[in-house]
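Appendix B. One record, verbatim.
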Amino acid sequence: MPMSDVKACDKESYDHLFTIISSERFLKMQGLGNEVPFFICPFKPEDTNQMVRYEKQLVNSLFNKNIKVKVINLYDLSIKLLEERGIFKQILEMEQQVSKEQLKELFQGVLDPEAHLTPAIADELDYADYDVLFLSGVGEVFPYIRSHNILNNLQSTAKYK
């Protein structure tokens, strides 16, 4: 869908999303051919603040229906991984001296979805009690991390949680 056709989440879209996610069929992953369902909610960058509010409202509304949501923000997780590896401050210091392409290559290496991000997501899921997983912060990590790479790697990881 072209970004010009994407509109901010309105009340009707929010209600639709709530209805789908809270449905028995969705929660039991029925009719999906043994695939983990991934649903993508695209929005324009300028609608980010509104979408963060909708996400929080949706998590609260689902919680009120006894549906537990685990939210993982890819940007926050990336920063955490860089800090745990002791390279976050180094990257901040070198950011001014390297090209955007060099920085992109660095991030793609140290935040590789298969080697680093998916295992970190799996670790978080191991300790979480949840019915639904929300991945947010996708636009914040683009183009360093491509969401389709995360989803491809999560297909096998999330299936067994």
